[in-house]
Every structure is written in C-alpha cells, then in structure tokens.
Amino acid sequence: MNRLMIRLIRKSGIDIWYTEGFNPHPYVTFALPLPLGFEGEYEIMDIRVMDDDYDISLIPEKLNSVCPRYIHFERAVEPQDKVGNIAFASYDILFDDNGEVSKALSSFLSKPSIIALKKTKKGDFKEIELKDKIKSYEISTKNGDTLLKIILPAGSNDNVNPSLLLEAFYGENTDVYYCFNVARTDILNASLGRFI
Amino acid sequence: MDEKRFEQLLLTVQKPGRYSGGEINSVVKDKKDVDVRFAFCFPDSYEVGMSHLGIKILYSLFNERPDIWCERVFAPWTDFEAVMRSNDIPLFALESRDPVKDFDFIGFTLQYELSYTNVLNMLELAGVPLLAKDRTDFSPIVVAGGPCTCNAEPLADFIDIFFLGEGEEADLEVIDLYKKYKHNGGTKTDFLREASKIEGVYVPSLYDVKYNDDGTVSSVTPQFDDLPFPIRKRIETDLDKTYYPDEFVVPYIEIIHDRAVQEIFRGCIRGCRFCQAGFIYRPVREKSVDTICRQAKALCDSTGYDEISLSSLSTSDYTDLENLLNRLLEWTEKERISLSLPSLRIDKFSDELLEKINHDRKRGLTFAAEAGTQRLRDVINKNITEEEILSTCKTAFEGGYTAVKLYFMMGLPTETYDDIKGIAELAQKIVDTFYQMPNKPKGKSVSVNISVSNFVPKPFTPFQFHPQITRDEIISKQQYLKECIHSRKISYSYHENKTSFLEGVFARGDRRLSKVLIKAHEKGCKFDSWDEFFDLEKWLDAFNECGLDPEFYANRERPYDEINPWDHIDFCVSKEFLIRENENAKKAITTPNCRQKCSGCGANVFGKGVCFEKR
Fold this sequence. Notes:
The structure holds 2 protein chains of 2 kinds.
Chain A: H1 2-12, E1 28-30, E2 39-40, E3 45-47, H2 59-64, E4 86-95, H3 101-109, E5 115-119, E6 125-129, E7 136-142, E8 145-153, H4 162-172, E9 179-189
Parallel strand pairs in A: 2-9
Antiparallel strand pairs in A: 1-3, 4-8, 4-9, 5-6, 7-8
Chain B: H1 3-10, E1 36-42, H2 46-49, H3 53-64, E2 68-74, H4 78-86, E3 105-109, H5 116-126, E4 141-145, E5 161-163, H6 168-184, H7 188-195, E6 201-202, E7 207-211, E8 217-222, E9 231-232, E10 260-263, E11 265-266, H8 277-280, E12 285-286, H9 289-303, E13 307-311, H10 321-332, E14 338-340, H11 351-357, E15 365-370, H12 374-379, H13 386-398, E16 403-410, H14 417-436, E17 447-454, H15 471-484, E18 490-494, H16 497-507, H17 513-522, H18 536-546, H19 550-554, E19 569-570, H20 575-586
Parallel strand pairs in B: 1-2, 1-3, 3-4, 4-5, 9-19, 10-13, 13-14, 15-16, 16-17, 17-18
Antiparallel strand pairs in B: 5-6, 7-8, 11-12
C-alpha cells in the first residue's frame, strides 16, 4: 500500500517532502495501517506537501484521477488529532447466514470470558482476554447476510485485530460459519469521536 | 466464481496480490465490445512474469486495438494451485477472472526451457487438452513465442502456432486472420494452414520429422509445397517506428524488476560464442536518443516509478550513450528518478559513467568476466583482458565501491582445470587491487563475490555442436574451485548442476521429448527452474519410461553434417558461419564485433541495422 501510494503521488504530480537522510525517500505514513484482506471505509494517510501555499483541497481530485478502481480519496485536511490519540476502530463483519450464525455469535460474545491466542514477536503464542476489550457490538442482518458491528481498541497503545476474535469464534464453532468480509468503517479517538 | 468466496480463498494463500488483479494501468474492457480475447500466459510466478518486458510490450500493443482484449495469466504458486484444484477453479485471467479456456487465444512466452512443464500444467488447469491434435474445436488457439522458439521442438505436440523472432507484427496479422475465419466460418486446419504463410509463423503440425536408427533426425519435411521451408524469423526493422508502451501495469506486491524499463536497442554486436541472445536477436538495431527520452518520460509519468532501467543486451555498447545519459539526466535528477544501467561491459566502464549513475545509493557492481583465463576468454570471444578487468575494479574502488560481483561460467568448451584455477586467481588479484590503493577507505574491507553458473550449449550459437560437460565433471570442477580460493574476502556461489543438465537436454531436444514432458508433468514436475521444486529422479524416470536417453541430447558431440532438430528454423545466422566460429574458438582466435568488421553471419538479409552502419 505504501508503494502504491508513493507511485500514485508521483503520478499525480504532487510535490511532496522527502526524508533527508542518506537515502532520501518520499515521506508517506499511515495513521493506522489496514490489515491485508480488509476493506477500509475511513483510512488516513499523512503526507507533507512541499509548497506551503498549496491548495490542499485539490489533492483528492489529483489522486483520484490516477487511482485504480476500488480506491477513492475523500478529502485532504490539516491534521487535527495526534496519531497517538487513536483509541478505537469500528468494524462491519459480514457472515454467510446459514440461519444459526447470529445465535452462535451472540452466545459467543455474551460469554463471561473470550480467550484468543495471539502470536508474539518471539513466535510463540500468548493467551489474551478479549471480553473486556470489546467496547460495544451489535448483531443484525444486511441483505440476507449476518452483520456484526463491533468497536475494538486500535492504535499504538492497544490494538485488537478482529481476526483474533474471528479465530477464537471459529475455534469454538468448528468451521461451519465463515465470515467473508471485514470492513473497517471508522477510526475513533478515546471519546469515540472520529479521528481526524 | 462467486466473488465473496474467491476473496475468502485468496486470504488463505501467500501473496494474494499475485491473483487479485486490479493493478494500476491494468486494462479492463467489456467483453461484449471485443472480438478477440487473448490470454497472455507467462509460465512462471507472477513476480517473475511481471518483470518481463516482452509481455508488457505485447499486452499494451494488443490492448491498443479496440477489438482485442489481452489479459495476463501467470502460473499459480503451488499453494494457490491446490486451492484452485480443490475448489474446481479453472485457470483464469487476472483482469476478468474469466476461465482461460473460453478465450480465443492462449499465448505462452517461452523464456527458458525449464518452464515447459508449467506450460503443460497451466493448460491442464485451464481444462484445455494438452495435445494440439486433441483440441479439435476452433478455439482456443494455443500459440507461443519467445527465444525458446528457435528450438521449441520439444513443445511441438502441444502448440498450434510458434511465433519466431519478434512478435509485434506477426501476432496481429495472425489475430486478424483468425477474426476472418471466426466470422466467415472455417476449420482450424484451414486457419493454421493459412497462418503458416505469414512470415515468422511456424505451425509445427504441418511438418513431419523422421529419425535415423541412432536417434538423430533424418529429415524434416513440409506436408505441402507452399509451406515456408526453412521457416524464417520476423524482426522489427525500424525501432523508432516500433510500438512501445507508454504504460506498464504496476503491481501491488514486490516483483523482481519493479521499475520502468526502457529498451534502447535489440541485438548485440559482440558475438560471444556461448550467448544465444547474441545470435538470435541479430542484427543490432538502435533506438534514437529522442525516441528513448520520449518513451522513458511517458513511462515514468504513467507509472509513478522512480527508477528507470535502460535495457539491452549490452547497454554500454549504445553508440551515443554519453549524449543519451546527459539528456535523461536533464529531467530525471529533478524528478528524483534514478537511472540503472544493467549489462555494462567491463571494458567500457569509465569514471564519467560511474559519476552519472552514481546517485546516493552505492550498491555493489556486477560484471561478467565469464572465464578465468585469457585463453578461455578468447575461445568464447568475450574480448576483454585481465588489465581491463583490474582497471575497472580499480575505478570502481576509487569511486567508493567496496563490493564487486563477477559472473563466470563453468564447463565451457576446451576448459581445463587451469582455467578453473584462473577464476580464483583473478578474484585474488581484484582483492589485491583494493589493498594496493594508496587512498583506500580506512576501516573498510572489500568483498569479491564470484558467481559461477554452468554453461549450457544452445542452438544457433557456435557451441551448438559441443557436448555439455557431465554432472560429475561439474561437481568435481566446482569442488576444485573451492579449494583454489584462499581469501576470506572472496565468496563463491555456484549453480545446481541437475537443473543445468535438464536445461541442456531441452535446449537441443527434438519432438520426441514431448512424450517425456507429458510423463514428467504426470509425475508432478513443475517450476523446474526453482531448485526447491526440481526433482531430477522424476525426470530420469520419465526419460526411462519413454525409452529416451537424456545424455544423447546433452552430452554428445554433434557432427557438422548432422541434421539438428532446429535446422529447418531460420534465425538468419547461417550454419556455415557457426561452424567457422566454432573452428576459430578451437584455435582461440577472436572475432571482431559487428561495428569493427562484418563476419558474414547472415543477419544482413533484413537490409537494416548495424550491418548497414558506416564503419
């Protein structure tokens, strides 16, 4: 994604700041990188434009004109929050509905304890308790599929990848259910306001 | 295929970006609006195939035409192949995800012999009969191009049409002819017969091959009087007028050559006797500085790449290199684009050149010395001297480089153990050169990496008559070289001998090897150029079951009067010339390059290129 963005920016002709080390490279960072295979509906990328008087409202249009399908730039603004203020992210998780998945989900999520196995950097597994990390959730249906809306911690302090939760769910429910799409719908600060 | 399910499955394999499609500049059309659908297949992984220039040229060329939609197909990696097989997903094209078997053309590019089993595996995954004679429907037509078509006889049973030489024109002519037959009705047989009259087209099923009792070819006969014989390759005569893409598909995942590639000329003036590319791409034809600058700029603008590689067989032989680099640097520096010049010759490396390509990153330099002694370098016509090698290394060291990589070959004709020892001695002299520099950087060490591959004799080279050395000899020479190296500054890497052996068999193979390919494919051989998948035992079993001896193809001296399996193919270098060159090689007599003196190879039949430059 980083490579793609750098190429899109170069293609669009926007002159951005390069790092000034021995090996200068274009400065592009992502507030909260999206895990592989997830859809993102609200994603944030930081760039620094060289020209101080540059009209940044033109940036989305420039990038959209060179962009592949499925990626769309919404708007460009001056940063308002610090990246460290990211606290939560909300997700829409869709399951193929076989009539029972919503029941299985609600009984799984209402258990007093949900233990997931997380791979540590050393390569072994650590058990973590997810129950008290789930900020909120809601199960409904959408176009005949089962939809789980859930808010999980995100950011540099504490981050829970929804895959962890899904794996724990599959672990207890064999593999009769499968989720086919995870979309991150929003990035939130500690008071659940949208991170900008 | 259900898109939800497909995406779910993608997440279960390594690098889903290999199969997802949707990259920048990939071409999506509405299939209702096109007449001909062409599946361009590269029989290796996405990362390898996407690095290949030929596929980019033809992809864009075909897609310029509103009536053609060309899509890309790569060999699925083994993890995804297993997923495809267990979920009944047929081989599909990346852009539309439509099954390849429904396309009008399935086109393979044959870049190396060890990809042949992948061709078979991809046809099988597509659900298309492997053998051309079993594909009785009008479409898909299975075609193939690329350097291996100069002797693709081992694939003759599987492919309907081979494109010999450069495909820009012949491909489109065949597609147009196909359209005519598709709309007016007609049989595949009639279409192939008519296509065979197009220059550069070889329809192998229209030629009968007979063999002598000893296994050599006794005759190749066209079935009809009006078939071309020999079948001559096709080339572009004016590269300034030849189509070149102004867009490349830019992959999401990291591939091998992830940069803009600007072709600067085709062919090579040098005539190194081991090098097939140096003969089959003749004559040398250059692009003008203006053309190169214009094309390179367009490519950078459309892709967002920050690196351009100037591509050719020997970039420093471009006649106006200095001017070209100056012109490119006018805008590349400003736009922070770096230039890379692969294939530099060791004798053409200068301070100024170093200055121009030397930006902020100082990487190691790589040169091809090919052989360890002057005698052997003369045999292979490499035409560089030890002094040139050492002075180039000195220039590089003085320019701040501390790592040098040298390529060598083992198993060259007339090679002795002294020549092998020469490799180690040359490397040692390079190390000494570094330490003899009065102003060598303090606290820095030098590293000299020698990489030794195994020589494989190829058709259309003067060494096509030579036996490949046996695996036992390679092993013993590799071991000997290891013993000759005494410095820890020298690292030595060498190439697996088993794959080279098989490459040698198929490079000079005949049609009977089609059977061996089927057997090997049935035994699960694929990705043979990848050491982790290559299984020589399976191959030897396959040969055995077909009653064929691989050593007959690889390790046998071929007399000049023997009919080679590729002698009916005309790549415009004459057999007389190759024999003359081989005799010179035996006497270690070098041949001047094409710009110094014409050696009468036969490539002047095209009436263009270096053959007609003023000397």
